[in-house]
Amino acid sequence: MIKFYLTISLLFISTLAFSQKTFREYFNEGMAAYEAKDYKLYLEVMQTLDEIRPNNPAVVYNLAGAYALNGRKIRSVQRLNQLLLMDATYDFQQDGDFKKIRRNKGYDELIALQAKLNRIEEHDEVFRTIDAGEIHPESFVIMDNGDILLGSVREKKIVRVDPEGSRIDLVKTEYAVLGMHIDPANGLLWAATSAMPEMIDYNPADKGKSLIMQIDPSSGVVIQGLEYDEGTTIGDLAIDRESRVWLSNSLEPSLARSNADTTDYTGPFMRKQLDLANGFFNPQGLALNDNEQYLYLADYITGIHRIDTETDDVVKVFAPEEILLKGIDGLYYYENSLIAIHNGVKPYRVMQYFLDETGQYILFGRVINQGGASLGEPTLGQVKDGYFYYLANSPWIAYNEDRELDLSKVKPIEIRRIKLN
Amino acid sequence: MRTRILLFLVVIFQSNCLLGQSLTLEYVDQYIQMSQPEMEFGGREKLYVVDGVPYDSVGIGSKLVKYNLDDKFLSIDYLFSDSISTTIFKPNLLIVLIHKTSPLKLKDKKKELQKVREAFLSVSEFPAFLINDKQLSIEEARQSLSVLKPRSIDHIRINKHAPLSIYGADAKNGLITIWTKN
């Protein structure tokens, strides 16, 4: 069996909620059991690892193998199904551990699913191509006059690009620009900026710091800011009708809502805080539904959750078996559907998921783009005038080990779109 | 005439069950028709959704073969497009949902069980209720739900519609099916 030690070692770095040693010990124990052909113990250990860190491809792959080796064919097929939805590039067909399930009814379906997931589907179109890859945009906002604001991770600034392609620096920011949204109530821009190793002049002492900025998009004047001094990487935000800002923190899982009712640049704000340490790993995209009763939150590992904005009740959003809500970065709401940008799966995909009347169950999904040539790393987007726009190729892949941007690997930024109705 | 057609459908439906055959489009259509006999089913525009993937009536046939009619976790339900969005879909489109009931984590079982208990607090409009394939009366259901522990639940399924001819008049309010671990 092909074992994925590298993935597991990377996992140790990001598994903050659990002891690194404990996880490593578990994994080593599992591998030792496998080598000793103690498949019962191997299965038990992989089940434990799956509880600790759900939806990890390497763990799920080993778990599927463990089920097969223990004769639990249906479970093995189910886990391989789950694996393929996360990473359809695994060559499980060559793995002898799955010999026992090859005649199982579900095995042929797995092969068909793998082929389906690796099939390129592009139902969207190019909206704009902008030669701005070197600033490493992660997010953008399309203005009513056709200008596009790009938020730079690398150069810590927001630039404005007019329809002819002319570019000016709108505002310098403290940290890397991640999520950006316009407040529809007043037309002001909110930008989430967080200290990232990929930004120029990164100081490790700034790790965990974020500054949420309110900016006049016409002049670039900074109106106010919300400071977070530790434990944060705020990757996305949502603005409600009362101009309150919802923020998702991926470094120490939490969700905050701030009342932006002061003109002090770094003044005090009324904050509502939801601690998501239990059951959340990496909160990312946020999307309010039309009446703002619910806020949808994508956790990169565990999927989409729905928060009742009045009661703070958090429920999981359920999906059918062929839909896995993992690896979602940007998340958007449109007419009782959720648009999700999956950049934590292979191949990358952008999906629209249709919800039932309750808003808690996904009925079905449609592919907007799956594995298209443009999808460098799709990140964030915007719903505007019946279209969904998204940034298709944020150049995260162009960084070397020292977090320096290799310009030879950087391509022009592509914003793609699809009509939603 | 309508009664006779319905009786005919029930006979086909039940005989199919006994045969343990693969699921077919014909079976699905009969199932939906029996869930809402007054609906003009034939000429209605439909979208079939299998495990979260939409198909039209032409493409769906081969996708149903993987389901056995005797699979207790097979779920068939439907809704009308107007109930979820008035702009994305064609008006009054019948969306037929076919999937296997998924296992839940304990905390989700708790929430689903709570939802079911709330459904049975209703004075008059309660759904049909099955536990381990045995249909219970409203009083039996309430009693069973009062002692049921989330931990002892294996699977739980809530359908908005089910064939009235099989599950009785309460099925017009939906069908709740629970399997316990024992």
Automatic annotation (TrEMBL), chain A:
InterPro entries: TPR-like_helical_dom_sf, WD40/YVTN_repeat-like_dom_sf
Record's protein name: Uncharacterized protein
Taxonomic superkingdom: Bacteria
Organismal lineage: Bacteria, Pseudomonadati, Bacteroidota, Cytophagia, Cytophagales
UniProtKB/TrEMBL annotation, chain B:
Domain of life: Bacteria
InterPro entries: Plug_dom_sf
Protein name: Uncharacterized protein
